[in-house]
Amino acid sequence: MNKAAKLVSSAIVGADFEVIDINGKAYVLKPPTINRIAGAVARLSKLALPDSATLKDMLCNQEDATEYAMALSFLIQENYDLADELSHGTFEEVVNGLVTAFDMISAKSFSTAASLTRSASVLVAKPLRW
Q1: Which residues sit opposite 19 in a β-bridge?
Q2: Partners of residue 20 on adjacent β-strands
Q3: Is residue 87 classed as helix, strand or coil in its secondary structure?
Q4: Can you say how many angstroms the Cα of residue 44 is from the centroid of all Cα atoms in its chain?
């Protein structure tokens, strides 16, 4: 079974999540929706992040994790209510949580799923000619 099929089947049965630990408390991260990604990126876009080889290197350039906690809160529950609680964790815990969340967005799996969706829509949209 290819990776895209595993992702789809995991999503159907609800097995597509990661658990992160921040300040001794576990938080469940589900694959981010477009809305959650947009909310998190809105917070991160306020920061001057340098270009780096990896996402983690880029995020580790800051000293304060307040905006990171806000972004992570939005990725966890689509609002900023957890930000204060998450900011009590270590800087590395919050950064690792963000990296884990963004790692759940696989470009290859996304493009495969998009291609399959496009193929299916073309099949449905084309009238049969007999």
Answers
A1: 28
A2: 27
A3: coil
A4: 13
Distance CA 123, CA 36 (A): 31
Task: Give tens-digit pLDDT for 1-29.
Answer: 566 666 566 656 556 788 999 999 999 99
Q: pTM of the predicted model, to two decimals?
A: 0.70
The angle at the Cα of 9, spanning 96 to 17, to the nearest 5 degrees, equals 20
Q: How does DSSP classify residue 130?
A: -
Q: How far is CA 37 from CA 10, 117, 130, in A?
A: 20, 21, 45
Can you tell me the distance from the alpha carbon of 122 to that of 76, in angstroms, rounded to the nearest whole number?
A: 35
Residues in Cβ contact with 16 at an 8 Å cutoff, skipping those fewer than 6 apart: 7, 10, 30, 31, 104
Amino acid at 112: T
